[in-house]
User: Fold (+)-abscisic acid 8'-hydroxylase from Acorus calamus.
Amino acid sequence: MTTTTSTLSPLPHILLSFFTSLVSLLCSLLVKSISAVRGAVSDCRRRLPLPPGSLGWPYIGETFQLYSNKNPNVFFAQKQKRYGSIFKTHILRCPCVMISSPEAAKFVLVTKAQLFKPTFPASKERMLGRQAIFFQQGDYHSRLRKLVLRAFMPDAIRNHVAHLEFLAIHALCSWEGRMINTYQEMKTYAFNVALLSIFGKDELSYIDELKQCYYTLEKGYNSMPINFPGTQFHKAMKARQRLGQIVADILASRRQRQREGQQSWDDLLGSFMSEKEALTDDQIADNIIGVIFAARDTTASVLTWVVKYLGENPGVLKAVIEEQEGIVKSKGEGEGLNWADTKKMVMTTRVIQETLRVASILSFTFREAVEDVEYEGYLIPKGWKVLPLFRNIHHSPDIFPDPEKFDPSRFEVAPKPNTFMPFGNGIHSCPGNELAKLEMLVLLHHLTTKYRWSTSGSESGIQFGPFALPLNGLPITFSLKT
Ligand code: HEM
Assistant:
């Protein structure tokens, strides 16, 4: 023992004692910081009340109250009236804080966006693809967003007007003399526009199968997430797998053409392929499918509402027709629309804005608090869902007087910041909004200058699937103007 001790050089002793003191110092710091954090959390929790409202029954919360009415907005409006612009509730086993003031929406979506992460049910994430832009935060999200914006910003889409016009004319011709379901037809148009802006005009051989797989995926999207042979969900997951393969095949064929000398493509797939730190094929597929999902039903719902509101407001329709006929007259025989023409469609643009406000097809969005957050003296606990209620803001009489009235002239003056958010706000706001507006303007130009339509009678009301939609997709009879 003595020998061993005496043979030890002093250096290890010094190191050992230095190491021991360092460890004990670190431990004490760690204990202090843990208790400081715990103290802060419990302090925050102890100090602050939850927002007003009710969490309903144990386990089921207020889920029945929300779903007992066909229109969820009735529930939100009643709650807001009773508790004010921030209130708590408990839906589908999730405690939630709902917010309906522009300031609170800005806090959650813009100023403190890092404290609130996007959140979706796991089955939806699996179906769309876990690496899709919607579910991301941080550097990967910024990278994806840059690539998506590159393909859909005005400079990138201004040369697409002729292609969109071709798709619009083709769609409208196919409705001539028929009774159509407006929403279904608008879905087909918006799908074709989305595919064009994702894959360009050259990948036609893949498009039919891609569409079929997407339809199967769509059917399973809102089904029970039971992945067992025979179920809708299972079929949808298989279709999702096949969609991934189709995107991989298109990528392989493009890479081959690249090796043979083709330089680049000015569509979304081209933008994804151009990324220096290459995205994997799976990442590209998840985001392509995600963009189709984000682009199609949203735009189709808004177009369906525009058709409805124009039909119900003859004065507004007349003003739109005059504006669009003015553009026709300013052009040579057979000359198509261009980007500059769409900038002259001021009245039609206001009609689209007012439609986005009144219909508010996305009534709200979801976030989840990543830590305990204090807002206006209330606690938003970590893990709780936070829902900015866009529709309540768009229908606030303090912001938009006589809010139920369809009145495009209110957009002669730009709305105040953070009061008009049909495309969301902040880092997750819609990167496709310019394309959506452009494809709507192009279709409305041809619709209003060449066609007339009438709704099929008594049906009125709203359905949610999941976007707000005129009842039964607005059946109309559609004919050429004589
Ligand atoms: C009128 C039609 C549209 C409406 C009303 C709409 C609305 C929205 C809204 C409100 C968000 C934000 C959701 C949130 O914050 O949680 C969003 C995100 C998104 N939209 Fe749109 N959208 C439309 C059309 C499109 C189109 C045509 C595209 C693509 C071409 C598109 C692609 C996306 C993508 C990729 C996101 C996710 C962005 C991110 O997470 O960073 N949308 N959209």
About this structure: Confidence is low (pLDDT under 50) at residues 1-39. The pocket of protoporphyrin IX containing FE is lined by residues 118, 133-134, 145, 148, 152, 194, 291, 294-295, 298-299, 302, 361-362, 365, 422-424, 428-432, 435-436 (CB under 6 Å). The first strand starts at residue 86 and ends at 91. The two ends are 112 Å apart (CA to CA).
